[in-house]
Amino acid sequence: MMNYSSRPPEEPAVHAQDLTVVRGSRPVLRGLGFTVPRGRITGLLGPSGCGKSTLMRAVVGTQAKVTGTLDVLGRPAGHPSLRTRIGYVTQAPSVYGDLTVRQNLDYFAAILDPGKAGADRRHDVERVLADVDLTGHADSLAGTLSGGQRSRVSLAVALLGTPELLVLDEPTVGLDPVLRRDLWQLFHSLAEDRGATLLVSSHVMDEAERCHRLLLMRAGEVLAEGAPEALRTRTGADTVETAFLRLVDEAAAAARTEESTR
Ligand SMILES: Nc1ncnc2c1ncn2[C@@H]1O[C@H](COP(=O)(O)OP(=O)(O)OP(=O)(O)O)[C@@H](O)[C@H]1O
Question: What is the pTM of this model?
Answer without folding.
Answer: 0.90
